[in-house]
């Protein structure tokens, strides 16, 4: 994602799509006026393609949901790994005692729950090897070659789940960035066409002018607007500049 990348618009993504579709309808109605200002069938196709390209992107919530599902699956596999490790550690404690050198060959400097996912993967590999090398001594505790196979299978499953979780997190970040980029590009087109529409109907048709407003800003009627202009003119005499902010 680009640093400090943000949406350029203050409406939701679905609202942006709907507004663009509404403006397309308004342009079709006003095509004679728009054509006179350089709006061509090609420009309409470009606008339509931008709408479709944006609307078909997966939403932020959908991508976040996939990431959460993958994270939960990874966490579940981790719990299974930790449970099997504790079973073997209990057997080792029963055979050699918790303070023995043999027992410490099975352990790590960090507690299981404190290990990172990557550290746990590495530890599982070592743990399975150590268990396999002590099968004779651990046999009376029910630890067998099947236990070693289970440990290696759990490690493989946890590795796969961890990869899937990382992929989903990356897809979330990439998808979020792409949606912002395409949304901003679409919004730029929308503003351009709305500016044209407002220019066409500014002094001709207030209702049609409002069709090209992006935000729900109250619009003054022509009589109200000119009344305020006259009032401001009387109160601002002697100033060099007069600036008015019109809604987008």
Fold and architecture overview:
By secondary structure, the protein is mainly alpha-helical. It has one domain. It has ten helices and no strands. The chain has helices at 13-29, 31-35, 41-55, 60-96, 101-104, 117-133, 135-138, 145-201, 206-210, 222-235. It is rod-shaped and about 95 Å long. The two termini are 28 Å apart. Mean pLDDT is 88; it is low at 225-246.
Quick tags:
single chain, 248 residues, mainly alpha, 10 helices, disordered C terminus
End-to-end Cα distance: 28 Å
**Overall average residue pLDDT:** 88
Structural class: mainly alpha
Shape: rod-shaped
Could you give the count of β-strands?
A: 0
What's the SSE pattern?
HHHHHHHHHH
CA-atom Rg in angstroms: 33 Å
Total tally of structural domains: 1
> Roughly what percent helix?
over 70%
Spans with pLDDT under 50 lasting ≥5 residues?
A: 225-246
Question: What's the short story on this structure?
Answer:
The chain is mostly helical. The chain has ten helices and no strands. The longest helix has 57 residues, at 145-201.
How would you summarize the topology of this molecule?
Elements: H1 13-29, H2 31-35, H3 41-55, H4 60-96, H5 101-104, H6 117-133, H7 135-138, H8 145-201, H9 206-210, H10 222-235
Helix pairs in contact: 1-3, 1-8, 3-8, 4-6, 4-8, 6-8
């Amino acid at each position: 994602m680009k640093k400090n990348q943000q949406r350029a618009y203050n409406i939701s993504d679905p609202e942006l799509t709907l507004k663009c579709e509404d403006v397309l309808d308004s342009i079709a109605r006003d095509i004679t006026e728009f054509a006179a200002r350089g709006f061509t069938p090609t420009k309409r196709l470009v606008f339509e393609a931008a709408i479709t390209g944006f609307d078909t992107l997966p939403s932020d919530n959908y991508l976040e949901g996939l990431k959460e599902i993958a994270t939960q699956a990874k966490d579940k596999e981790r719990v299974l790994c930790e449970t099997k490790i504790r079973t073997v550690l209990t057997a080792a404690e029963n055979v050699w005692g918790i303070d023995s050198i043999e027992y410490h060959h099975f352990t790590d400097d960090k507690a299981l729950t404190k290990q990172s996912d990557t550290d746990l993967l590495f530890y599982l590999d070592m743990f399975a090897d150590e268990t396999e090398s002590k099968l004779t001594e651990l046999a009376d505790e029910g630890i067998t070659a099947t236990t070693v196979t289970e440990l290696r299978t759990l490690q493989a499953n946890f590795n796969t789940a961890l990869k899937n979780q990382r992929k989903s997190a990356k897809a979330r970040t990439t998808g979020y960035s792409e949606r912002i980029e395409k949304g901003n590009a679409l919004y730029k087109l929308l503003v351009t066409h709305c500016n044209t529409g407002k220019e066409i109907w500014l002094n001709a048709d207030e209702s049609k002018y409002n069709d090209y407003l992006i935000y729900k800003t109250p619009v003054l009627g022509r009589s109200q607007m000119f009344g305020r202009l006259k009032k401001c003119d009387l109160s601002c005499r002697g100033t060099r500049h007069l600036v008015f902010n019109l809604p987008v």
